[in-house]
Specification:
This protein has 227 residues and is α/β, with parallel strands linked by helices. The chain folds into two domains: 138 residues, 3-Layer(aba) Sandwich (Rossmann fold); 79 residues, Putative phosphatase, domain 2 (DNA polymerase, domain 1, Orthogonal Bundle). It is 48% helix and 12% strand. Strands 3-2-1-4-5-6 form a six-stranded parallel sheet, sandwiched between helices. α9 links the parallel β4 and β5.
Length: 227
């Protein structure tokens, strides 16, 4: 079994339950504006958000565009005009209050922290992610949290990972592995950066991409079988 010393964890939908937090936040936004939020609207947001992030990761649009346009597109579907930046600011505040964890995240990180150096590598906003990790109880297990808006690049870009490597003491890429749920950002990023990867795939999705994970797990506790 290969020896690892440094574990790079994705944040949302790997350690933190972003989907649950986002759904609650969107419902509060709709209620604040005086509208009900149906399950159909939740699905529309997920679809719009996923498509825009994909364009961003393919360097077609900026992160600012993603964060502004997604709510404008969402409310356009019900013929309501909103200020995308204003809604995004509300969403950020609500999101920062959400620290729900993926099943097993706290126990797994606590145990792994005894033998490995743990870091977070996330696409998102640094202040939001810092607060969520502090509130979740995971912050104390992490050596550092690297977030794209502070790094200046996003996963899966090589520049994002080069920044991470340059800011981790005594870096040995052969002893690193990234654990994440996204084939496009985490696994492709690992492929680009020349490090091993573990695809966290609790919903057992098909891999129809050209991203090749070193390992695949459905539960975080399965990491113990790899490490």
């Amino acid at each position: 079994m290969k020896k690892y010393s440094t574990l790079l964890f994705d944040a949302d939908d790997t350690l933190l339950d972003f989907e649950k937090t986002a759904r609650a936040s969107i419902e509060k936004i709709f209620n604040k504006l005086g509208y009900g939020c149906s399950e159909e609207m939740q699905r529309r947001f997920q679809t719009i958000d996923r498509e825009l992030w994909k364009e961003h990761q393919e360097n077609k649009i900026t992160m600012d565009t993603v964060l502004t346009v997604r709510f404008e597109k969402l409310f356009d579907t019900i013929n309501i005009k909103v200020d995308g930046k204003e809604i995004q600011a509300i969403f950020n505040e609500l999101l920062s209050q959400g620290s729900e964890l993926i099943d097993g995240a706290l126990e797994v990180c606590k145990k792994l922290n005894e033998k490995y150096d743990l870091y977070v590598v996330s696409n998102g906003i640094q202040l939001t992610q810092d607060k969520r990790f502090k509130d979740s109880g995971l912050f104390c297990f992490m050596k550092e949290i690297f977030v794209s808006d502070m790094v200046g690049h996003h996963k899966p870009k090589k520049e994002f990972f080069e920044y991470v490597f340059n800011n981790i003491p005594n870096t040995d890429k052969s002893e690193m592995i990234i654990i994440g749920d996204s084939l496009l950002s985490d696994i492709k990023g690992a492929n680009n950066a020349g490090i091993d990867s573990c695809w966290f795939n609790p919903k057992r999705k098909q891999n129809d991409s050209n991203s090749i994970p070193t390992y695949e797990i459905q539960e975080l506790k399965e990491l113990f079988n790899i490490l």
